[in-house]
Design brief:
transmembrane; transmembrane helix; membrane; DUF2116 family Zn-ribbon domain-containing protein; single chain
Length: about 60
């Protein structure tokens, strides 16, 4: 899950902005748990597409 869509219950601002200590603590926790948390979904989809294309290319070359 990306934290850019989460809203802080303490200050009602997006957690990604880190306006209050609660936001900053949760943002740090999420970044430590998941190194891809800061990436937006389109970047993840693009990386997945590149990975699939590379696997398909390798499979085609070995056949």
């Amino acid at each position: 899950m990306t934290y850019d869509r989460l809203v802080c219950a303490n200050c009602a601002a997006p957690v990604s902005e880190g306006r209050c200590p609660v936001c900053r603590a949760n943002r740090e926790r999420l970044q430590q748990e998941n190194p891809f948390a800061g990436l937006n979904p389109m970047t993840l989809i693009a990386l997945l597409a590149i990975l699939i294309a590379a696997v398909a290319l390798l499979a085609h070359q070995t056949a």
